[in-house]
Each structure stands twice: as structure tokens, then as C-alpha cells.
Amino acid sequence: xxxxxxxxxxxxxxxxxxxxxxxxxxxxxxxxxxxxxxxxxxxxxxxxxxxxxxxxxxxxxxxxxxxxxxxxxxxxxxxxxxxxxxxxxxxxxxxxxxxxxxxxxxxxxxxxxxxxxxxxxxxxxxxxxxxxxxxxxxxxxxxxxxxxxxxxxxxxxxxxxxxxxxxxxxxxxxxxxxxxxxxxxxxxxxxxxxxxxxxxxxxxxxxxxxxxxxxxxxxxxxxxxxxxxxxxxxxxxxxxxxxxxxxxxxxxxxxxxxxxxxxxxxxxxxxxxxxxxxxxxxxxxxxxxxxxxxxxxxxxxxxxxxxxxxxxxxxxxxxxxxxxxxxxxxxxxxxxxxxxxxxxxxxxxxxxxxxxxxxxxxxxxxxxxxxxxxxxxxxxxxxxxxxxxxxxxxxxxxxxxxxxxxxxxxxxxxxxxxxxxxxxxxxxxxxxxxxxxxxxxxxxxxxxxxxxxxxxxxxxxxxxxxxxxxxxxxxxxxxxxxxxxxxxxxxxxxxxxxxxxxxxxxxxxxxxxxxxxxxxxxxxxxxxxxxxxxxxxxxxxxxxxxxxxxxxxxxxxxxxxxxxxxxxxxxxxxxxxxxxxxxxxxxxxxxxxxxxxxxxxxxxxxxxxxxxxxxxxxxxxxxxxxx
Length: 627
Prior knowledge:
It contains 20 helices and 22 strands. By secondary structure, the chain is α/β, with parallel strands linked by helices. α14 (about 380-400) crosses α19 (about 575-595). It is elongated, with a radius of gyration of 35 Å. Residues about 1-5 have low confidence and may be disordered.
């Protein structure tokens, strides 16, 4: 593999130039000291000073190797090093002056001359290196076309971003404008660059060949940011984002840290408001059990709970490696908070009961579940044993050991289910809601759709496909999904658990549904690629049990509001515990027998709205249910 070779000056030439600078500076210092008319009695000392000063400078340069640095890479650390070496040399000459004056009552070199020589030598050596560096980069990259860039945000972050781009000579960025929504900054100039209002963005794009827009504002609202990114994508402009200051390396921003905007930034919403005081009152000084603690939702619930300083947090999961990673992460952040890691399966009653006996939890957040629709469609017995059986064991033990609140995390796929996974979660909803009627434990259910970045969700899959060069696989051109960020979903789970009095099914406002095809196209654009040229999209067809459109509640369910506009209550068909218990026990019995058809038929009998879609169990919707 060939490598580009650059001309490099021999080190001895740089040393000679540095010594020449010292010689020139010393001569200039004498001339300035005596107003360009050196007295005759100073001439003799003048000639004595040269070997002393040049000798000390040469020795210090040779020892410290200041001449060995590559000039085109001169940095602030090199400048500090040069200044330090010169300063130490000057201090040595001051000491020699002091000694000779004590002995002979005469200086080798006048003190004022030493000061002028130090200042002159420092400036010339530093300026020479900086000029050489600038000339090198100007010559090296003069033929590269400049990329027109707009920076959104004319505050301190924007100025830092501009200077970072200016330093990145290899990329040759040309800052054509700042854009800012603050009225006081509009029509001003910052380092020679004019600030425009956001309304002028389209004109700026039309008048220039803008290739990049860099967002460097902390005050821009999420909706405003989304609109800005959408406009840029429509003009094939690459959007980058300046990271928060706390993420900068050694407190400095580098160009490589200015990353491409992520699809999560487009799908995310403005920060939600929750009642932290109420959550704190419920959680503080309590022993709390979280199942599925190493999963996407479970781990975030653990992080958020720890902020409220529970008495003890019990993190329960069977996934050993993710639990280890979560434990390591929490140790680095919450070293003084008390928590316990328990590796176990929620289907193992003995293991769960031992956890209740040893730790005496007062609240339970149940996030453990099988969640992947295609896998569960092919393994219905496992889905029922875990999502229904595991939930039943946990709920029964919660009643037995007088748990105050049990928060069950369900899914939007439980609404009018078309697959085994959704039907199993709806079955679990029915059980805990009916159990609420006959127990002192308050059972609360929460429903929400897809969360951004969760394991196995569509966004990480698309990212991997894009990184591989495609194709990006979409199941159906019309398929849509609801999305919510993991922190947002978990905040709402905590608040729902706080305001719930038992028996409710809380449904979270997921915003507008997103067309997955549009999502794939935007992810490709955000990656700086062109659809149809750099990468392709293919359609694989709906997977077994998959819906084209998800629902947050069915037509038969009434929705009630709460104090939080993001949280609604679904009024669903309710069952009595005596009615439900034998049905659930029978389903678990069928699951043990591994008889898929009889098991699914039993679930359909319990949930009449369960109609299989694109599944081998679709035929059961037309058959008489077997007892």
C-alpha cells in the first residue's frame, strides 16, 4: 500500500536557524539597548557576550531537542516548551551575571539586553514555526475544494465550533454564515461572519453550495431542531451536532467529536415534565425489586430509581453478561447507593421466593419478558410460560409477601393482538388486573410502543445494515410504528406507578406514528449516503404475527385523562379473578405440554379480539375452540 511522502527539513537546519535567530536577537537587543549607537567601552563586552549567550542557547536546545519537533504539527504544547527552554536559559545567564558581578564588579551581558534577547528570540522562534505550519497547510491543501458550512447557534458554542473548523485545515471548511433564533444576535457579525435568522436559511442554501450544517446551540427546542434537520435533509445537506461540553476530550472540542445527527434526535420529543417530588416520596428509603433489570427498559428504570435513593434496589435478571455490565456501570456512578444483583429466572418460583424472603421488597417493577414478535410466533409455549407464567409467579408472590405496588410493563402489541407475543402480554394484563380486585397489593399496568435504541429494535438493525453498505431491509412499504425514548418511557413508568391506585392500565402518549420506510430513508440521509446510489432499500414482507399499524388502544376501550397529558388510562374489559384463574392455569398446563395449537386456541378463547396475522395460527380463528 503506497503512502504519501512529505518533504521534511533535516533537523540540523532547524537548529542552525534557531541559533541564527539567537544571534540576530542578541545583536538587535544591543542596538535597541544603546539606541543603535553602542559606546566604545561596551564593544569589548559586546563581543564577550556572544559566545556566552550562543553557547548557553545551543546547549539548552541540544539537551531539550526543541529543534526535533515536526514544524507542520506545531501545537500549543510546543510553544510552551520553547518558551520554557528559553526562559530557563535566560535565568542561567542572570545567575552568571550575578556571579561575575560579585567577583569582578561587571556583568557579562547587560540585564536589559538579556530581557530584550529573550523576548525577541521567543517571538521569532514561535512565529517562524507558526508561519511555516500555515504555509505548509496552505500549500498542501490549496487545491482541495472548500466546503460551505452554516453554523446554527451564534453563542459561545457556535464560536468554538467555528474555531474548531478553522483549525481543521485538512477539511478546508468555509463558514458562510451563522444562523440563530435569538433576535439580539441577528444581523451582527462574529469573527467577520454575519448572523442570520432561521427564516433566511433557505436563501442561504440557495445562494451558496452548502454541504454541512452544524448545530451548536443548547437552547434550541426539540421541535425547532427537528424542523431544521428536515429542511437540511430536503436540500441534501449533511447535519452535524456539537456534543455537550462535558463530553469534550480534555475540555477541548475537536472536529472528530462533531458527529452526524442521529435518527433519535428526529424522533425524540421535548423533555417531559414529571412530578419528581411524588416519585421521591414513593421510592425514597424503599426496597424495590426490578425484574428484567439488564434489559433496555429495566436498566433505565434502575438508573432512574437510584437517583431517588431507595433503601435497596434488587436487580433481578437471568442474563448474566448484561447484568455484569450494568453492575460495573452503576458502580462508577452510584458507588454509595445500596443495590443487589440477583441472577435468576422469573419462571423459577423457588429462586423468586428466596429473593422475596431475603430482601423483603416493598415495590416491584416487572420488566422481564420475551418481546420479539417473530421469535415468539415460532415459540408460543415459551412466550406463555415466561410472559404469563413468570408474571403469575411474581404477582402471586407479591400478594403473599404484601408488596405495596406492582408495576407491570406491557406493550402496545397487547391491543387487538395479532401475534403470540402481544397476546401473551394481554393475558398477563388480564391476570394482574383481576388479581388487583382480591388483594391488598396495588397492581398497575403500563403500555407503550417501541423505544428508541432498545436491543433488537429496528433502528440498531438499520444502523448495522447501513454500516455494511446495505441493503436496508424494510418489511412492508406502509408499515408504521410509534417510538419513544427509553428515558422518557421509564420516567412515565415511574410516574404511572406513583399515581396508580390499583387496577389501571396506563397508556402513554407516543406522539405521531412513524412510517418505517421514511425512517429508513432519513437514516440513510443522516449517514451522508444517497438512496439508490450508495445504498438500496429492499422489502422483505411482513413477518409472522406482524401488524402494518400498531394501536395504543382498541376501538372498544375508553380513554380517561390524568394530570399528566402524556399518560392516559384505558378502560378495558375487566375479568373476575375466579373467572381468570382456571383459564390461566389451563394455559400454563398446555404450555408445559408443548401443544402449540391447543395453547393458542385457549388464548384466543380468553381474548376474542386476538386475530392472528400472517401466521400459521390464522386458521384457528375460523375453527371451533378445543377444550
